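Sample pair:
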Amino acid sequence: ELRARLRAVRHTVLVLSGKGGVGKSTLSAVLAHGLAADETKQVALLDIDICGPSIPKIMGLEGEQVHQSGSGWSPVYVEENLGVMSVGFLLSSPDDAVIWRGPKKNGLIKQFLRDVDWGEVDYLIVDTPPGTSDEHLSIVQYLSATHIDGAVIVTTPQEVSLQDVRKEINFCRKVKLPIIGVVENMSGFVCPKCKNESQIFPPTTGGAEKMCQNLNVSLLGKVPLDPQIGKSCDRGQSFLAEAPESPATLSYRNIIQRIQEYCEQHHLPEEKIM
C-alpha cells in the first residue's frame, strides 16, 4: 500500500536536526515555498513532528482541518501546487498537547504516508522532530519501500548544536540514509544600519564548515540571522516573497538550488523505483 501510494512521488527529502530550536521547520517551510515557486512543480510538505507541529502556523494554515475523500485524506493547500499535512490539523486547538507513546506516533506516520492523497508530486519534504528517535526510524523504515533522495541536516554554529548534529550524521550512516548536506542557520547577523556583522552564536570549534570538512559531508550553505524570518513565520507568510533582497533569502535560494541539483543527479529511473 505504501509503495503504491508513494509511487507518484518523484523526490523525497527529509529535514533533520540534532536538537530543537535550530530552525528546522523554518527551513522545511522555506524549502517548500522555494520549490513551489516553479508553478510546473507539485510540492508536498509532510510534518511528522507529532509533539511540536509548528508547520500549520508557519504556513499560515492554523485552524484548517483535514478532509477525507474516497481516495484518502486530502492535504491542506497553501497554493495550487503546494499541499501540507500535519498532526496540527487533527487537534481541536493549537494548544492541545499530544501525549502519545511511540507505537501510536509511528502508526500516525504510517497513516500519513499510506492514506494522504498527494497525487503526482515532484518533491515531498518531510519535517521531522529533533533527534534520532522512534519517528526517525519509522519514517526511514516506511520510506524504504520507495526511494529517498536524502536528508538535509540543520544546525547552528555553536559546538553545543554541532555535537548533536554529529550524532544525526552517524544515525544517517547507520540506517543508510544518504546525506544531501548540512545547513548552518543563524550564521552571523548583519546590522541593517551600520552593516557590521556580529556572531550571535560564535562558532567556537569552527562551526558547520569545519565539521563538514572533518566528516566529509557537503555544507549546503549558511543562513544569516534576519528578524524578518521570525516575523514571516509568525504571520504564516513566505519569507522568500516578503524579503526578496535579504542576504538570508539569497542564501536560501542557493541552498534550494543545490538540493534540486542533488535530487536531479541522484534520481532513480522509474523502473528501479518500482
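DSSP finds eleven helices and twelve strands in the chain.
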